[in-house]
From TrEMBL:
The keyword Phosphoprotein applies. This is Response regulator. PROSITE patterns: RESPONSE_REGULATORY (PS50110). Keywords: Phosphoprotein. Residues 5-120 form the Response regulatory domain. SMART domains: REC. Signal peptide: none annotated. It comes from Clostridium thailandense. The modification 4-aspartylphosphate is found at D55. GO terms for biological process: phosphorelay signal transduction system.
């Protein structure tokens, strides 16, 4: 298994020595150290570390400025601030500039190692989630449509972008909380909503309100089942769903989101369903 490559940024020889010992004793590869902004930029470009431990005070620049420069070179490099100062304002600024963690000096070896491992476990877990979640959400939608309406849907090709869409008339949004935040959105026409509701309850819905309640519960089941599938694959996700938010009308728009999402059109004999699901990292 590839070792995590670490660059230590600190102008104290003593601190560099302490951090190097802790990291190497715990099977991390220390690829170098730097004591100024120019050294940081050179070492990052030359050594290509996975992680940088960042002191807050150095000659000519502070740790936040160095962090910003590292992120310009490679946004995938993780930065942990290692500083004697630790207050809410500094932590917020560090997070805003792209730091993934914060450890206070004097450094506790267990705290440092746990912080590093948690950061990389989260990244691996997020990559795993991105590779699997849409298949499981589509499986859940297919299974529940089949149970309720005896309908087998077909899906268009997955689209990996998020643009503003004009609603077909009924939109249901289900939030997902847990290790990562996410959301599932289903958008369909009033006619499709009525068709699904009619088969689900084996009679005509009394009114639009009953139809929306049925679609809301259906969406909640689809998202809940999909999250259960994901939790069984890896209990670290800890996903659970929030109550659905339901919108309907003739002039609705589905807003563009900064969240990474995947869209498919679910085609059934009852009508089409615009199906959009996405998750984001914990620090976004």
């Amino acid at each position: 298994m590839k070792k995590t490559r670490v660059l230590i940024v600190d102008d104290s020889i003593f601190s560099v020595s302490v951090l190097r010992d802790i990291l190497e004793e715990n099977d991390f590869e220390v690829v170098g150290d730097a004591a100024s902004l120019e050294e940081v930029k050179k070492e990052v470009m030359d050594k290509k570390p996975d992680l940088v431990t960042m002191d807050m005070t150095m000659p000519g620049a502070d740790g936040l400025e160095c962090t910003r420069e590292i992120k310009k070179i490679d946004s995938n490099i993780k930065v942990i601030i290692v500083s004697s100062m630790m207050d809410d304002e500094i932590v917020k600024k560090a997070e805003r500039d792209g730091a993934s963690g914060y450890v206070q000096k004097p450094v506790d070896s267990e705290e440092l190692v746990t912080t590093v491992r948690r950061i990389f476990a989260s990244e691996d877990l997020y990559i795993e989630l991105k590779q699997t979640y849409m298949d499981l959400f589509k499986e859940s939608l297919s299974n529940n449509l089949n149970r309720l309406t005896k309908t087998i849907p077909n899906y268009t090709e997955e689209i990996y972008k998020s643009e503003t869409e004009h609603s077909r008339g009924v939109s249901i949004v289900v939030g997902v909380i847990g290790k990562f935040a996410g959301r599932m959105l289903m958008d369909l026409s009033k006619e499709t909503a009525e068709n699904i509701s009619r088969l689900a309850i084996k009679r005509d819905p009394k009114n639009m309100e009953e139809c929306l309640q049925i679609l809301g519960e259906f969406s909640n089941i689809v998202a809940g089942n999909a999250c259960s599938y994901l939790n069984r694959k890896n209990k670290l996700y800890g996903f659970r769903v929030s109550p659905p938010a339901i919108f309907h009308g003739n002039s609705l728009n589905i807003s563009k989101t900064s969240m990474e999402t995947i869209t498919v059109i679910c085609k059934t004999q009852l009508g089409e369903i615009f199906f959009n699901v996405g998750f984001q990292r914990s620090d976004e």
